[in-house]
Amino acid sequence: MAAANGRRVVRVGLVQSVCTSDREANVAQALAGIAAAKAQGAEVVCLQELFAGEYPCQSEDHGKFTEAEAVPGPLTDRIAAAAREHSVVVVGSVFERRSHGLFHNTAVIFEADGSVAGVYRKMHIPDDPHYYEKFYFAPGDTGFMSVPTSRLQVGPLVCWDQWYPEAARLTAMAGAEVLFYPTAIGWLDGEESLHREQYESWDTMLRSHAIANGVFVVAVNRTGREGPLRFWGASVVYAPNGQALVKLGHDASETLVVECDLGRIEWSRTRWPFFRDRRIDFYGDLQKRWGG
After folding, report:
1. Does the annotation mark 166 as catalytic?
2. Structural domain contains residue 54
3. Do the domain assignments include residue 277?
4. Which of 39, 149, 284, 286 has a 20 to 30 A CA-CA distance from 166?
């Protein structure tokens, strides 16, 4: 983490990629993305959701379970080695084999020395056309967390978690300075009339999490076509006041680094004191599924 004129500045790298059926090529491009981000000055690098392969959940296929690996395992060992080689913190998303018949969609946070700083298992699991994640993944049991690293407090969340203000709030309350969302979201063929609305809804939710919690938000989404699903890319970084610091394109692989001045967290929270004014004595009903 660099200090500039007394500011706490961390440089965050986003690696947005097109994946294919060639697993080794996918892993190689992720490793190349980490190296490219470091060359641009990154201190923290975030990869997209399930970067090692094509998105596995477009159908209910028992054969896809062979793609899962233990954590730690061969895939995480390679990312750990890249973190150590380039002295960067890495947020990587993997298809975790926890035990026989038990799998998770898992974000692993690697310290700059290659050690595992934290493991977060995706808490909200979707089940929609071509997003049949409930077939593959058990809901996470790690809870919402802040992972201390040498660069910043990492708030790991994954994709579908993006739609839940409770997840962002609890992660921020745990001490996270940046919410990281490795993501795989896109458009389906036949829904062209909804494409703009779907993308803008997603983007608005990310911005709202930054504003409501006074934190930075980083979402790294995959891009490219996989069957009837076209991932829309558009990876983004929002500052605590909702300012878009960078937005990547929809259709191409891209690696970009953005400076995040962590002092903006205090600035935003003292001017928009949402945490001060929360009525925690009246929020008990949030633990109910619905209503009075």
Report:
1. no
2. yes
3. no
4. 149
Name 267's Cβ contacts closer than 8 Å, sequence gap at least 6. Answer: 240, 241
Residue 281 lies in a domain: no
Model pLDDT for residues 150-185, shown as the tens digit of each residue: 999 999 999 999 999 999 999 999 999 999 999 999
19, 67, 96, 122: the catalytic one is 122
Which residue is catalytic, options 38, 43, 46, 49? 49
- Domain housing 218: 2-272
Domain count, the chain: 1
Residue 6 has pLDDT above 60, yes or no: no
Neighbours of 208 (CB within 10 A): 15
Of the residues 19, 46, 57, 159, only one is catalytic, namely 159
Whether the link from the prior residue into 72 is cis, omega within 30° of 0, is yes
- Decide if 215 is inside a domain: yes
Known catalytic residue: 49? yes
288 is catalytic: no
Residue with tokens 């458009």, as numbered in its chain: 187
CATH label of the domain that carries residue 165: 3.60.110.10
pLDDT tens string 110-140? 999 999 999 999 999 999 999 999 999 999 9
